[in-house]
Amino acid sequence: MAEPGKVVLITGAGSGIGKAVAMAFGREGYGVVLAGRRADALKATADAIGASALTVATDVSDPKSVAALFAAAKAKFGRVDVVFNNAGTGAPGTINLEDLTVEQWRAVVDRLTTFTAAIARAETAAGDGSGIAVAPHKTRDITLSGLRLALPDGRVLVDDQSLRIAAGERVLVTGASGSGKSTLFRALAGIWPFGSGSIAIPAGARPLFLPQRPYLPIGTLAEVLRYPDRGVDASDATLVAALGDVGLGHLAPALGEHAHWAQRLSGGEQQRVAIARALVLKPDWLFLDEATAAVDEATEAKLYTVLHERLPDAAMISIGHRSSLRAFHHREIHLARDPDSGQPGRLLDRRI
């Protein structure tokens, strides 16, 4: 994000993701420009942020409206430093607005329009009851029934698939890049509204999802290891032991050090911190989305061995491409889909 004191323009800021982003910037003292179609929704967001917010009800698909939007922002704040557009990466893009050509202005409009449309599609899918229903149930298993996974543009990844994963199982999810493996995990996490069918999750389940690029909040290393459950009952000795288990014992003296750990640590070290986090939080369902792809195979084997030893009762569902991962799982779910075909795929279930 921008440094405090700078000015951020956010489209679709009246609800959903846009509103959440606006609130986050506003809490940090940023000047915030809220753009969208609904003046009443923008005003509600602005009232929650305070005097640092400017609302502009406008159509960001119209270049003239966008020009007026930036003019209003500069009239209040004197400048605009960052446009939050999500641009396919989930991160804000920093733009030097004084140097924009006509083509670059058009690109800004296109990104703002795309982001606004994506927010609208997600909210519609989540709110009209047509999405994937994820709900707790009384058994110990995860059950997928009639699952249809789709992309926001309507393309179907898998259609009418059913599956059961028992508590404590070790399952490897495979498939070609783009076949929908990570989308399946997002659906299991309840954050993917595009599709239909149902997913039943054990009531009271304690899941933990570890992506390929783990989120490491700015803070002390101890806070990073306890994230997202910072209230977890884990002593410093437990944290030190977890760091040692993943080969990061040399970081133990830095537990109380406040830093931007995502910038300080390499990709492989960040993944090992995420594995240490799993050892600390002790989930009963652990989902690893290429969570060891940045380390070599020997280190990966050590990390999986530690997970098996320290979390013997946890179910582990891994996405991975390396054949060496098969040694740590006893079941494979293969997403049989050719991303170039445009046709829905199938979930092939087989023993390892």
Please report the distance between the alpha carbons of the first and last residues. Answer: 44 Å
- Secondary-structure element string: EHEHEHEEHEEEEHEEEHHEHHEHEEE
- Estimated structural class: alpha/beta
CATH topology of the domain at 7-127: Rossmann fold
CATH level 1 class label of the domain at 7-127: Alpha Beta
**Helical content (DSSP H or I, runs of 4+):** 25-40%
The largest sheet has its strands arranged as: 11-14-15-9-16-17
Mind summarizing the main beta sheet?
A: 6 strands, mixed
What gyration radius follows from the Cα positions, in whole Å? 22 Å
Notable characteristics:
25% strand; globular; 10 helices; 5-stranded mixed beta sheet; 352 residues; Rossmann fold; alpha/beta; single chain; 6-stranded mixed beta sheet
Written description of the protein model:
- It is built from 10 helices and 17 strands.
- Mean pLDDT is 83; it is low at 86-100.
- The two termini are 44 Å apart.
- It has helices at 16-27, 39-49, 63-77, 102-127, 181-188, 221-226, 236-245, 261-264, 267-281, 297-310; strands spanning 7-11, 31-36, 53-57, 82-84, 93-94, 133-137, 142-150, 156-165, 170-175, 195-202, 207-210, 219-220, 258-259, 285-289, 315-319, 331-336, 346-351.
- It has a domain at 7-127: NAD(P)-binding Rossmann-like Domain (Rossmann fold), CATH 3.40.50.
- It is globular.
- Strands 11-14-15-9-16-17 form a 6-stranded mixed β-sheet, with helices on both faces. A 5-stranded mixed β-sheet has the order 3-2-1-4-5, sandwiched between helices.
- Helix 10 links the parallel strand 14 (285-289) and strand 15.
- The protein is α/β, with parallel strands linked by helices and 352 residues long.
- Helix 1 (16-27) packs parallel to helix 2 (39-49) and helix 7 (236-245) packs across helix 9 (267-281).
